[in-house]
Amino acid sequence: MADYDYDLFVIGAGSGGVRAARLTALGGKKVAVAEEYRVGGTCVIRGCVPKKFMVMASEVSHALEIAEGYGWSFDNAKFDWPTFLEAKDVEIARLSGIYAANLGKAGVELVHGRAVLKDAHTVEIIGKNQTFTAEKILIATGGRPWKPESLPGIEHAITSEEAFHLPQLPKRILIAGGGYIAVEFAGIFAGLGVETTLIYRGPNILRGFDDDVRAHLAGEIEKRGIKVVLGCQHEKIEKTATGLVNHLENGMKLETDVVMFATGRIPHVKDLGLEAAGVELNDEGAIKVDPYSKTTADNIWAIGDVTDRMNLTPVAIREAVAFHQTVYRDNPQHFDYEAVATAVFSQPPVGVVGLSESEARRSCSAGVDVYVTRFRPMKYAFTGSEERVLMKLVVDAQSQRVVGVHIVGPDSPEMIQLAAIAVKAGLTKAQWDATCAVHPTMAEELVTLKEKQSGATSAG
Ligand code: NDP
């Protein structure tokens, strides 16, 4: 080590980079982390955390509707966007400060600036005339939004990054894409009273999710007032005196005030100097790593979204822990990507763990048993709401293990965290059913589902 400035130099102070840096410094190593923007990364600064605040702000409108059914009345209830933005930004600054303070407490040196690899052991901080050497380097630079740059007028479209800081709430917004970010922001804006249109090129939103979830959610978000246009893409975006006109391939023309593209995120590898360090990319443009997160350079590792394995904050944190255990604790570990629960904070939200029905049909040789229920949540009893909850269990017909749980409805992200324990533990349907219900709840349906969906057991 004497030959290097640091034992470990981490590039990127997001969830993964911060965890790896802290653990390693607490283990007695000399560690630095470089961050070009603010400590906290995508999750804290321009992702999960501010997004959840926006969801919570937006959900209030629905809560008020329910409240009126219960006899409450609200005169002049109104939402003020600048007040919300200010409160959100104060909290984000507080959280970012905590992240930075925790790095300091662990003894990690924070380097402000953009780090670029000069060779496998050297990083330069651009514009600061600073160069550091390190025995080992960890790349945790995350991802960044992608939009189709060849689309005429795309310069008028924003991404989720700008959506967090819109100077004023638009009257009309069009969101392109059908993934997590598109459906989450469609719900946010619709709940805040913005006339919202979602345009997705495929046959239904949330490709990769269970088909019942996709169909159910598409129907539910329409009930909340979102106009969903499927099987359709942009031809061009035209700026006029009154707004932005979206010209679609099917001939439709839709004028809005804001157009947001949520068409995916790509690994943040641009101008990182990877070639100089011998770090290769895979065919999708993500950093190529082995199961232990080691890159093609012997002393360089990469974790989180920059490796495009499973782009979720808790996964990046687990990859950081596994990296630390493998490299500094003589305890080789790799993260197990099976049965990772995920939530889409749409309105209503989605909670999922394990296999979709079609995935289970492909992997369970004796077929699957499927249990589905749709019902009106008790909370809506006085509101006349047509909203329904979907709960679905997918069970391996042979082992009787519950291999997939899919919920669309209020509190599903909270429920799925607990269901994930049972799925990860490989519990059988009989063991789920042996668990006594908590009444009256929505979650009790998960342990009282008796009717198999007819014709379910055949293998696909
Ligand atoms: P996703 O990959 O989830 O969705 C991208 C969407 O854009 C898809 O519907 C895709 O369509 C569509 N798309 C891609 N290219 C084009 C194109 N050229 N024209 C039109 N549509 C296109 O990405 P997101 O940006 O929504 O989110 C990125 C990742 O961030 C997620 O995958 C997730 O891992 C993570 N995330 C997690 C969240 C959570 O945990 N709650 C919240 C937000 C993000 P198609 O399906 O046809 O390819």
TrEMBL record:
<protein>
    <recommendedName>
        <fullName>Glutathione reductase</fullName>
        <ecNumber>1.8.1.7</ecNumber>
    </recommendedName>
</protein>
<dbReference type="InterPro" id="IPR006324">
    <property type="entry name" value="GSHR"/>
</dbReference>
<dbReference type="InterPro" id="IPR046952">
    <property type="entry name" value="GSHR/TRXR-like"/>
</dbReference>
<keyword id="KW-0274">FAD</keyword>
<dbReference type="InterPro" id="IPR023753">
    <property type="entry name" value="FAD/NAD-binding_dom"/>
</dbReference>
<keyword id="KW-0560">Oxidoreductase</keyword>
<comment type="subunit">
    <text>Homodimer.</text>
</comment>
<feature type="domain" description="FAD/NAD(P)-binding">
    <location>
        <begin position="6"/>
        <end position="320"/>
    </location>
</feature>
<comment type="function">
    <text>Catalyzes the reduction of glutathione disulfide (GSSG) to reduced glutathione (GSH).</text>
</comment>
<dbReference type="InterPro" id="IPR016156">
    <property type="entry name" value="FAD/NAD-linked_Rdtase_dimer_sf"/>
</dbReference>
<dbReference type="InterPro" id="IPR004099">
    <property type="entry name" value="Pyr_nucl-diS_OxRdtase_dimer"/>
</dbReference>
<comment type="similarity">
    <text>Belongs to the class-I pyridine nucleotide-disulfide oxidoreductase family.</text>
</comment>
<keyword id="KW-0285">Flavoprotein</keyword>
<feature type="domain" description="Pyridine nucleotide-disulphide oxidoreductase dimerisation">
    <location>
        <begin position="340"/>
        <end position="448"/>
    </location>
</feature>
<dbReference type="Pfam" id="PF07992">
    <property type="entry name" value="Pyr_redox_2"/>
</dbReference>
<keyword id="KW-1015">Disulfide bond</keyword>
<dbReference type="InterPro" id="IPR001100">
    <property type="entry name" value="Pyr_nuc-diS_OxRdtase"/>
</dbReference>
<keyword id="KW-0521">NADP</keyword>
<keyword id="KW-0676">Redox-active center</keyword>
<dbReference type="Pfam" id="PF02852">
    <property type="entry name" value="Pyr_redox_dim"/>
</dbReference>
<dbReference type="InterPro" id="IPR012999">
    <property type="entry name" value="Pyr_OxRdtase_I_AS"/>
</dbReference>
<dbReference type="InterPro" id="IPR036188">
    <property type="entry name" value="FAD/NAD-bd_sf"/>
</dbReference>
